[in-house]
Design brief:
The structure holds two protein chains of two kinds. Chain A is mainly beta. In chain B, 0% of the residues lie in helices and 51% in strands. Chain B is globular, with a radius of gyration of 14 Å. Classes of the chains: A mainly beta, B mainly beta.
């Protein structure tokens, strides 16, 4: 059974800092891995989707990488802003299984 | 674009009452999902529907039933609510990809349910 872990659970950084959020998964047999953002009391907003055949995806100040062999993905946020404060979740989609497995998330606070 | 729409957004029930959470998507997606989110536990899959007319159990299906009414709509029913079902419920749909498993997942805003 796929297990997804995100460490740390919470992170606080000053504005302008570059930062990396980590996601690890136990089974490398995945279709894809997706990163989401969740603001308090809101739903999940998709940030980046990386297919199993890809190494990374970029959108603006965000870059997500995928290393299936080591069971790791990272989300890099450049030049962080207070508006980036939110909880970031990763989820892995196993082969032959409709159950997308989610990590518990990293709660990011960017201080002005 | 509305995307994935859930109703109601908030609901308070007494133990033993029943209710249905409604979900509709306007993106012509085949697959739809119901998740629950509890503090410290991440999102867990309750039921999913790979296509119109089919439904399957996820990780935590006990106490719930679902109906895939048509391609757009997927409802979640609590027949006899229990305090353990207090949670935030999210509906999601999966977009197209090169294969059935590769599409992007899109979420609704959530339905916050409290069972007293």
């Amino acid at each position: 059974k796929q297990e997804v872990t995100q460490i740390p659970a919470a992170l606080s950084v000053p504005e302008g800092e570059n930062l990396v959020l980590n996601c690890s998964f136990t089974d490398s047999a995945i279709y894809n891995l997706q990163w989401f953002r969740q603001d308090p009391g809101k739903g999940l907003t998709s940030l980046l989707l990386i297919q199993s055949s890809q190494r990374e995806q970029t959108s603006g100040r965000l870059n997500a990488s995928l290393d299936k062999s080591s069971g790791r993905s990272t989300l890099y946020i450049a030049a962080s802003q207070p508006g980036d404060s939110a909880t970031y979740l990763c989820a892995a989609r196993p082969y032959n299984n409709n159950d997308m497995r989610f990590g518990a998330g990293t709660r990011l606070t960017v201080k002005p | 674009n509305a995307g994935v729409t859930q109703t109601p957004k908030f609901q308070v029930l007494k133990t033993g009452q029943s209710m249905t959470l409604q979900c509709a998507q306007d993106m012509n997606h085949n697959s739809m999902y119901w998740y629950r989110q509890d503090p410290g536990m991440g999102l867990r899959l309750i039921y999913y529907s790979a296509s119109e007319g089919t439904t399957d159990k996820g990780e935590v299906p006990n106490g719930y039933n679902v109906s895939r009414l048509n391609k757009r709509e997927f409802s979640l029913r609590l027949e006899s609510a229990a305090p353990s079902q207090t949670s935030v419920y999210f509906c999601a749909s999966r977009g197209p990809g090169a294969t059935a498993g590769e599409g992007e997942l899109f979420f609704g805003e959530g339905s916050r349910l409290t069972v007293l």
